[in-house]
Design goal:
Layout lengths: L2 H23 L5 H26 L8 H28 L8 H23 L4
């Protein structure tokens, strides 16, 4: 997968969904659902930016391509499950979608831990 392009697309989606939320949903959602939507957009934006940055690290030799692919894949899964479930919860009011959110959160955590381990190994000369 071309992770840099994926990161760029996710960033564009984050901006579009954030703008949609602030302009089209502000008067339609109650404060709780609006805060859920805003949280989804915030985590979407931060982790899309993370994916974009991590996708460049193998090209500059800081990270192996395999480790970079794993981190980017986990970040993508995190955005889909964490932010996606929160967007759905906010838009529909169906709280069952919140049960999916931790899968995305765990993916985010795993991605950042994997990145840290891979960077430490890379700095120590170990593959």
């Amino acid at each position: 997968m071309y992770w840099t392009a994926t990161g760029a697309v996710l960033m564009a989606l984050a901006v579009m969904l954030g703008a949609f939320g602030s302009h089209a949903l502000q008067s339609r959602l109650d404060p709780y659902r609006m805060s859920v939507y805003e949280r989804a957009a915030f985590y979407h934006f931060i982790h899309a930016l993370g994916l974009l940055i991590v996708s460049v690290l193998p090209r500059i030799g800081v990270l192996t391509a395999n480790a970079g692919a794993w981190v980017c894949g986990l970040l993508l899964v995190g955005v889909i499950f964490f932010s996606g479930s929160l967007y759905l919860l906010a838009l529909t009011g169906v709280r069952t979608f919140g049960a999916i959110t931790p899968i995305g959160g765990l993916s985010f955590i795993a991605a950042w831990i994997l990145l840290a381990v891979a960077l430490i190994r890379s700095a120590s000369g170990r593959p």
